[in-house]
Every structure is written in structure tokens, then in C-alpha cells.
Amino acid sequence: MLSFIHAGDVHLGNPFTGLSQKLSPDFQKKVQLATFTALNRLLEFAVDQEVDLVLFPGDLYHGADNSPLIQEHLTKVLTQLNQAGIWSAISFGNHDFQQGQQVHPTWPERVLVFGPEVETKTITTKSGAKVSISAFSYTNQHHRQSALPSYPVKQAGVDYHLGMYHGVVGQEGENYAAFSLKDMMAKGYDYWALGHIHVRQILNRNPVVAYSGNLQGLNHNETGEKGFFLVSDQDGQGLVPEFYPVAPVLWQQVEISNCPDLVTLQGQLNAYRWEQPTLVILELTGQVGPDIQAAARFGTLLETLQASRKSTSDYWPVKAQVVTKAANQKHSRPGLPADVDLQAAIRRVVQADSIGQWLSDQAPTFIRDYFYSEEGQADLADRLYQDLVEGGQDED
């Protein structure tokens, strides 16, 4: 019997770049501590459930910043897992690749840290099961070769063989260690814990090849519940993942139709019972009152809604827009084939490589860092889409 947690993309210390500085102090603190709180909840669950192992397949840290606060918090969590007899397996991904080259405090006894070459480490659980884990860490932001050829086939003489892999399904030469699902399953492992994609998804069920998503949504494109997989061998039927949410702050898209005026809109938002602290992406559809349209046109709608929020409310609007009929159409601009998803096409183009070509070397570091981040790229893609689809509609 084996039970473990698969927790990809923790991004400990993520600063939530771009959120308004007008957040109320209590809400701001919840947001700033969100990734730490999510990791604490994972710790409590792991100890309570007496799991054997926690897998962190890349991007455990948000970046190269190895601040004392971040390092102290992680060390405390790993120490408490170790004291509970729980192993931790860590590999570094494209966000925290530099962590593998930095000096860290002495890791607790039951912490396995994987280097730049594929390694296989074997442990014995409390119940006596022998478990092998194979993984590697990034040494650069981009890893343009599949690492799968270096992964061994399932080890003989072990009860379970687990793989950790930070990457994407794709073609050789693409960024982020692109791999073939067929090649991955050919290794004969009992479970593949994937990292990098912040969307929870199971690519294959027997054996399971899965992304757990991240513990805490980091931007407005990462809506809904976030957490980890508890994986266990249920009645000898193989390793099966079960999702557990732990994100203390939710990003949630809210659609309101046919709102007659700002007063009604403000009342609806303030009267809604939010289950937990929520960052709201608001879309107004249908017939929208003229004062709302004017506020959206002049760029004051979001600030107005933020200012009218009750101080006791557990939500904060981060984006508000009036969605026109044209904006809902995938090929609203003439000249595009009917089967082209314009928004998806823009997001494929807006990547770190292309942004690096567009940005001047003289741009301030904080601007470059923002547009190299996933949040900055998503924001740029959304703005380009809105300009292309909605541009010129008020020209008359």
C-alpha cells in the first residue's frame, strides 16, 4: 500500500504582480500569504493522512529569489514532514531553475533533491514498500530537449516506480522539455507526476499521467479551485489520484447579464455570499446600462467597483469589462478563416521568446520581468485580443 501527494507548481512566494495597491489591508495580507497558506494546508493534510511521500515536480519556488522568509517557511514545512516520517521529493522547473545552483540550508533527512541529470532514488516507506522516484531539474529557463530518453525503465525489485517531469506534451526542440505521452508510458512506471501546466488534468489513466495544477491560482487566467492530488493504491487497482482543494484565495470569473445601472451592479456584488476570499473577473453581457457603458469606455469601471466594495466583503474586483457580441465571436475581424480561434492564436504568439524580441534592452528591469511572467504574457494577449476584436467599434 502506498499513498502520496502530488503537488505541482507551488510557486512559493509568488508576489501576485499587477494587483491593485488599493487592496484593503486584510485582503492584501491574505493575497500576499496565499502560497504560504496553501503549502501549510498541504502539510496539515499530509500529516493527518499519514502519507508516505510528497512529490514536488518543479516550480516549488516562484523564482530565483531565495529570501530568508521563503527559505525559512519551506524549511519549516519540510522539517515537519520529515518529523512525521514523510518523504519529500523535489525537482526544479523553469521558474526556479536557479535554485538548484544556490546554497540552501541543510535539507532534512527525508528530502530528496534531484539534480540536472535524470536520477533515480529509492526509499522504503513505513509499511516496508520499496519506491523508486526518477526525476531531473532544469538548469535554464528553457529546456529544449525531451529528458525521457535518460529515464530508465521501471526498476526491478521495487513495489512502485514513480516519475516526476516538468514539461509539456509536444515536439522535440520546443520549450519546456516537450515529451511524447507514448514514450512516457513506455517506461512502465506506476505513476507520472507532471508539473508546469497550471490546469488540473489527467492525460492517461492506466498508468496515471497527470498534472495536479497549482496549489494557488496566480492570475486571472487561473480560476476555480486549486490544490493537489492525494494518490493511493486502492485495493490493488493501481495508483489513483483524488483532488483536494487548498487555495486560500480564489480567482473567479463572474458573468452578470442585463444590468441596468451601476447602483444595481454594486448592490449585486456586495450582496453576494462569497465562500472564501475571491478575486473577481467580471464580465457584463446582454443589455448594459448607459452609465456602465460610459464607465467602461472611459476606463473607470473597475476603480468605481473597487471603491464601492464594502470593507467587510470577501471579494475584490480585479477586472471588469462589457462583453459585446463581437467580442464573443472567434473570428470577428474580416479576413480570418472561420475555424481560427483568434484568442488562442494570440496566446500562442505571445511567449517569452517573442516578447524578448519586442522589448527594448533599455526597458526597466521590472517591466521586462513582468512581461516575461505568465501573468504579464496573459495580460498582453488579452489586451491585444480586445484591441483587434473591439477596436474601431466606437469610431463613428
UniProtKB/TrEMBL annotation:
Coiled coil recorded as keyword: no
Pfam families tied to this protein: Metallophos (PF00149)
Gene3D superfamilies, per the entry: 3.60.21.10
Keywords: Hydrolase
Taxonomy, superkingdom: Bacteria
Stretches assigned to the Calcineurin-like phosphoesterase domain: 3-199
PANTHER family assigned: COMPONENT OF ATP-DEPENDENT DSDNA EXONUCLEASE (PTHR30337), PHOSPHOESTERASE (PTHR30337:SF7)
Protein name listed in UniProt: Metallophosphoesterase
Species per Swiss-Prot/TrEMBL record: Fructobacillus americanaquae
